[in-house]
Each structure stands twice: as structure tokens, then as C-alpha cells.
Amino acid sequence: MTALLISFFSYRFHVKTTKTKSFIGLIIPLCAVLLALAIGAIMLLSLGANPISGYATMFGAAFGSVEGFSETAVKSIPLLLVGVGICIAFRANVINIGGEGQMVMGALLATAIALAFPDIPSLLLIPMVLLAGAVGGAFWGAIAGALKAYFNVSEILSTIMLNIVAVQFMNFLLRGPMIDPAEIARGTGIPQTMRLTENADLPILIEGMRMHLGVVVALFVAVAAYILLWRTAMGFRLRSVGYNPHASRYAGISVPKNVTSALAFSGAMAGIAGAILVFGSESHRMVTDGGSTGFTGSAGFNGIVVALLAGLHPLWSIPSALLFGGMLVGANALQRAAQVPSALIIALNGLIVVFVVSSEYFKQRTLQAGRVEQEEDDDE
Amino acid sequence: MMMSDSFAVMIIVATIASGIRLATPFLLASLGEALGQRSGVLNLGVDGVMLLGAFGAYYTVLQSNNLYYGLLVGIAIGLLIGVFYAFITLNLQAEQGVSGIGIYLFGLGMSDLLFQKFVGTPRPILPFMPLDIPVLSGLPVVGEMLFQHSIIVYIAFGLVPVMSFVLYRTTYGLNIRAIGENPEAADSLGVSVMATRYSAIIIGNGLAGLAGAALAIELGIFQQNLTNAMGFIAIALVYFGAWSPKGVMIGSLVFGLVQAIVLQCKTFGVIPRSASDLAAMAPAIITILALVVVAKRFKQPSALTKPYVRGG
Fold first, then answer.
1. Is A344 helix (H, G, I), strand (E, B) or coil?
2. In CATH, what number is assigned to the domain containing residue A262?
3. Domains: count for chain A
């Protein structure tokens, strides 16, 4: 069956120019997403909902109106930032599964800054909290990076463990030292900070909507990451280490240093995402659900999907993040309209990850098949 | 004085017994993970498989009132996901770290979805009655600690010697270990890399499903994210135990005991709620430290996470 699919693709798309190559690089992961959505349709059907009107509700809610799109843009911010970070890490051949923990640590440091200096004017405080987010996330990422670079500890495992540590640390801080004094006075004890200083509120871009400064920050970071990766010596070293560590070492590039900084960069972006989630939230508090997931809404994991679908390209991550942000908004609409639990979208995201990762196989084979065909053509 | 002494003994015995009980899901899941990793395949989806197994078992017991059906359904769900995971990682050579996260997200969302749709409000189920081993359970102290558990505990710990035997004393086990170290060599000797890895992954996921079922039945309840990242700890335990069944068992017991002690302290109010959050960080931190030591002293299976392509 797999062979059939490959020959279909290589027949349809003669791989001769780089243009068709990048087209294939785009179309095959998209097919994987469509396949996952098709399975989602079957799931909707078996839950007693009409899949066509279900998807129409979802995408209508996410992209059908200015308000909806504003909501989608806001939901996309953490996905884009984490996704861009994942692009950098994966390009350096580092698998960063620690987005969750890096978001938490970034948010914690940013919140601590806002609690400590509530009187600094916005113009200064907002850059400060975003920077604090970046530093917190970068620190958490760099730990995993250093463990891999200098102690040979798999980053896959260390980042997962650091996620658990970060979340429990957050639960501890938000139940103890950082808790809203009013919660203790009332005796309700909800693990959250007090309403953070208004000076740190991210300004709303369009009156009456939720879209705030975070959207601009995320787009800026995506462009910056693109420039970093392909227009700077630093980015060249990161990609070189990812592509061939042995050759890099031979060329005088330090592999341990670059592995560490790849995870630090990646963590910094997740950390900014965490900070934006706090200061762009409607409650303007840092909150935890007290469990193992915290406040991130799994963006640390979903960002991986965004990056994969974007072919690990920071700029392609922008539409990719919008798609997944839109699905999150749509899922809430679907829950209201058809009583389909929004957990459906988490399951669907999981399927998309699996399918997109698996589609890599078809992509490589199609490109290979095209190459062979071209050589045969040359012989004639 | 006498009174307080016997009271202390009682508490210690109860804590150890509950530690053994809490270690059981960890043990089942990490035995399965160890099997897969020994054959060269990393499965990060354990937590998702456990969640689906847990829901399947919970729902089955709710409908049939038969705990054994619940266990079987948990295993069956695990086996099914195992087939799927084997296909994508072996046939399609998908990157194992990332596709495992996909399975995790799928399990996390799907189990929650099914629970909300088909159960809604949590209804408790009755757990297994403790199965007292004749004679032995009557022993003072040791009896209560070791021989008054539910059947699933005996199954889990019974699997440790079974798996040791299979891994180190049978041809199948030798094949698994060979394929995890050097698939080319094993292939050239006529061992089917594909079939062996398929079987290891499927059995491993089956154990993860059973672990989830055991957890749900032990707790007598299901809720969103019931496992609370236990599956990830189970993966770490494999490294902790340096890929041997006995090592994995010791690791599980340590983690189970730490949990039991924290719980006991919480119930007696020895430590405040916030400090128990700090204590909950302990397993992960211990694991990171253990990883540093393990990475230095033990070698992971050489072919771990590397797909095998003939002549490639």
C-alpha cells in the first residue's frame, strides 16, 4: 500500500526542480493533516454530531469573523512562539519536549518581576517582563542542553523530567509564597497570584477585541528566528551541528556549546510564550490548575505539531500556528454548539503529530523516486 | 511506650504496603517500556496508552461489574495501540520521540473525550479485594506488608522474574537484545528484526494498557489526566533501572515508597500542602540525577530510536 502511495505521488509530481521539491515538502504533511481531520470526522460522526456542520462550525468560529480571528490570533501566540523555538532546536538536532516546563519557568520569573516592581511604567515594565520570560525559559532549556552536551543525558528524558519539576515548583509557589493574600484571607485558597499590576497589561490592539501586543511580539520573534537561523553565523553553526556534528567539530564548531544554546534559544521562546499567557490573560493573574498540566493548555506539546507541519521553518510556522489556534477556538465553539467535548481537539492534535511525523517517510521516498526518474531521463 | 511503639510499627507496615501497591502501575508500565527499548524502540506514549487503558478498564467494570474484564480490556487497548505504534515507527520509520508525544496527546484527549461523553460524572467502582496468600499472609508484619495485596500486585511482581528469564535465558530474549544492540548483525544471522520489534512493542504497549487498568481499578475511579504524568516517570524508571527487569522493579519500589511516605505525611499533617508540592518534585529530580549517573556507567541499547533499514 505504501509503495502505491509513493508511486502515485512521484507520478503526479515530477520532482525535477527545487520548486516542486518544496511543493512536495508542503503537500505531503498537509495530506497528513487532512487524513487526521478525516478520522476526526469519523469520531464526530460516532459521537452523534454531523462532521460537515461540525467542521463548518469550528472553522467558521475561528476564521469567519473579525472577532473570531482575533480570538484565533490570541490562541496562536503561544503555539507560534513554542513552535518557532522547536524549529531552532530541531534544526540543531535537539528534540525539545520541554516546552511546557520552559513556559512555566518563563511565566514564573516574569510574574515575580511584575510582583516586585509594580510601579515601573508600562513602557519599561512590559519589555522587562517579556525579557524575564525569555530568561526563565532559556535557563530551563539550557539545563537540559548542558545535561545533554556535557553529561550525555538524553534531552528527551531530561526535558520531560524538567517539565514535571517546573509544574510542581509552580504549584508550590502559587499555593505558598506567591499566592494572592486575598485568597488566604477568604480561605478559598485558589492557587493564583493577585491581579498583577496594570502597568504590565499587554495593550489591546483593536478596541473591543482580545487581540493584544503579544501577537506582534510573536510575529517579531518568528522573523527574528528566521534571520537567526539563515542570516547569521550563529544560526549557521546551529544548523551545521544539527546536520553533521562530526564535520562541525572538524570545522572547529563546538558541538556542546551549540547544543546548549539551541535549547536555550528554544526555551527562551517558550518562556516568552509563558509570560504572554499571563500578562495577556483576561484575569491578569498567574493561575495553576494544581495538577500536572498547569496553565499552558498543552501549548508546549502542541507547538511541536506547529513546527513539524511548517517543515521546521519559522515563517511557515505562522500559518501553521493560526491553523492550530483556530482549531482550539473552533473546538470551544463546537462544544457549545454540538456538545462535543473540546478534548476532541487534543486527541486530534495527537493524531496530527503522529501522521505528520509518519508522512516524512512518504516525503523522502517521493523525493528519492523523483531523483531516480530524473537520472533515467538523463540517460536517454 | 509500648502502645506508641506498636503504633509506629503499624504505620510503617501500612506505608510499606501502600508503597508496594503504588509501585504496581509504575512497574507494569516500565517493564513494558524496558522490553521495547531493549529491542531498540523508544515509546514516549506510555502515559497516553495508560490513560486509554485506564478508561477502557473503568468503563468495562462500570458496565459489567467484572474486574477481570476490565483488566483484559486494558490489555487489549494497549495491544491495539502497540500494533499502530509498531506500524508507524517500524514500517514508516517515524521519529520515535515525537510520534510518542503524538500518542500521548491522543490518549490524553481521547480518554477525556470518551469519559465526558459516556460517563460524565465520576461514579466509583469497587476495587479488587485483597487476596491473602495462605499461611504467608498470617505472618506477623511481613504478612501484612507483602502477602495481603490484590491479584494485580502479584501479577506485576511475578512478571519480573518471568521477564528476566525471557530476556536472558531464551532465544527470543537473545534476539531482542541482539536487535537492540546491532540489528544488522542479527539480521544477517536470520533473525527477523521486524517481527521481533513488532512483538516487543506490542507486548510492551499491552503492559502499559494493563498498568492503566490497574491504576483505574486500584483508585476505583476515572478522571481527566488520571495518570498525572506517571507514564513519563515509568519511562524514566527504565533508565533508572538500567534496562534490567530487576533494576526497574527496584526503581518502581523506591518511587512507590516515596509517594506513600508523602501521602502518609500529608494525612498526618506533618507537612503542609505547599511542601508536598515540593516533595512531588523529588521523583523527577532523582531521575535527572540518576540519568547523569546511568549515562556515565551504563550504555543504552545502541540501536535505540534508530530505525532499521536493510542495506541502509
1. helix
2. 1.10.3470
3. 1
Give the chain A residue nearest B102 (alpha carbons): A350
HEC string for A136-177: HHHHHHHHHHHHHHHHCCCHHHHHHHHHHHHHHHHHHHHHCC
DSSP for residue B149: E
A303-321 confidence digits (pLDDT tens)? 998 998 898 999 999 999 9
Q: Is B77 on the interface with A (CB under 8 A)?
A: no
Residue B85 in any domain: the answer is yes
Name the 3-class secondary structure at A199.
Answer: helix
ipTM summary value: 0.89
Q: Count how many Cα atoms sit within 13 Å of the Cα of residue B99 in the half-sphere of its side chain.
A: 26
- Between CA A214 and CA A220 the distance in angstroms is 10
Residue B310, domain member (yes or no):
no
**CB pair distance less than 8 Å for B88 and A301:** no
Q: Which of B106, B109, B288 sits opposite A158 (nearest CB)?
A: B288
Say if the Cβ atoms of B98 and A357 lie within 8 Å: yes
Q: Answer yes or no: is A335 within a domain.
A: no
Q: Quick one: which of B103, B122, B120, B86 has its CA closest to B50?
A: B103
CA distance B141 to chain A (A): 35
Amino acid identity, position A320: S
Please indicate whether residue B32 or residue A338 has the higher confidence score (pLDDT).
Answer: B32
Q: How many residues does chain B have?
A: 312
Chain A closest-CA separation from residue B99 CA (Å)? 5
Q: Does A210 fall in a domain?
A: yes
Q: Domain of B163: which CATH number?
A: 1.10.3470
Residues 6 or more apart whose CB falls under 8 angstroms from that of A31 comprise A359
Q: Exposed e or buried b for every residue in B254-290, given b needs 16+ CB within 10 A?
A: bbbbbbbbbbbbeeeeeeeebbbbbbbbebbebbbeb
Q: Is residue B307 part of a domain?
A: no
The CA distance from B227 to the nearest CA of chain A, in Å, is: 9
Residue A35 covered by a domain: no
Q: How far apart are CA B186 and CA B200, in angstroms?
A: 15
Looking at the domain assignment, is residue A38 inside a domain?
no
Amino acid at B297: R
**pTM for the full model?**
0.89
pLDDT of residue B120: 85
Question: CB B97: neighbour CB atoms within 10 A?
Answer: 22
Structural domains of chain B, count: 1
User: Could you tell me if residue B303 is inside a domain?
Assistant: no
Best residue in B281, B292, B297, B306 for a mutation probing chain A (most A CBs within 10 Å): B281
Of A153, A304, A345, the CB nearest to B109: A345
Q: Name the residue of chain A whose CA is nearest to B90's CA.
A: A358
CB B137 within 8 A of CB B80: no
Pair B216, B50: CB distance under 8 Å? no
Nearest 5°: CA angle at A143, between A140 and A144?
Answer: 100
Taking an 8 Å cut-off on Cβ atoms, the answer to whether B102 and A350 are in contact is: yes
Q: Domain limits at A182?
A: 76-321
Angle CA(A247)–CA(A253)–CA(A259) in degrees, nearest 5?
Answer: 95
Q: Which residue has the cell 509564597?
A: A177
User: Which among A156, A176, A292 has CB closest to B229?
Assistant: A292
* Residue range of the domain that includes B62: 2-297
User: Which range is least confidently modeled, A128-132, A287-291, A323-327, B69-73?
Assistant: A287-291
Q: By C-alpha distance, which of A77, A90, A84, A99 is closest to A314?
A: A84
Q: Do A304 and B101 touch (CB under 8 A)?
A: yes
Q: What residues of chain B lie within 8 A of the CB of A349, using their CB?
A: 105, 109
Comparing A2-11, A205-214, A234-243, the range with the smallest average pLDDT is A2-11
d(CA B179, CA B184): 8
